[in-house]
Amino acid sequence: MKQVALLVALVATAALLFVGGTASAYTKGCERGTVGSDRMFGSFRADALCGERGDDRIVGRGGNDKLVGGSDDDRIIGDNGADTIKGGPGRDVVKSGDGDDTVRAGLFNRENDGARDFVYCGPGVDTVYVAGSDVVDASCEIRR
Question: From the CB of residue 34, how many other CB atoms can be counted at a distance below 10 Å?
Fold first, then answer.
């Protein structure tokens, strides 16, 4: 039987939900997942969610979120708001949502991490930084 831990952290009136592991402490302005594969869901306010190792799924929901994938292959969904999304190392799938989002598909301040990332954009004017091997939806604003 697979064990699944569930933690609901209430921060002011905003709720953050972590499934698949116990969240670590709130450090450096970002709520962090575990070294395993986590599911992290933000609130309808501005959140900062950072994955660690493992194949994480990070969903910002509403608000102007900061969403950062960790190492390994992550799925990151911005949803509503003007989000800042960083894929991190690994083969990531990133989907921005409504709002004017900024997406960096690769490593934190570099676009090229050697992995092939997939980026999809929603309504709004999105700015996407990628490397040549990344796959970007035609509706995205691209800077190479």
Answer: 21
Q: Which helix (H) or strand (E) holds 118?
A: strand 118-120
Average pLDDT, stretch 69-76? Answer: 92
Buried b (16+ CB within 10 A) or exposed e, 100-132: ebbbbbbbeeebebebebbbbbbebebebbbbe
Q: Residue type at 58?
A: I
The predicted-structure confidence for 92-110, as pLDDT tens digits, reads as follows: 999 999 999 999 886 555 5
Considering only the C-alpha atoms of the chain, give the largest distance between any 2 of them, rounded to a whole number of Å: 46
Question: Which pLDDT score is estimated for 49?
Answer: 97
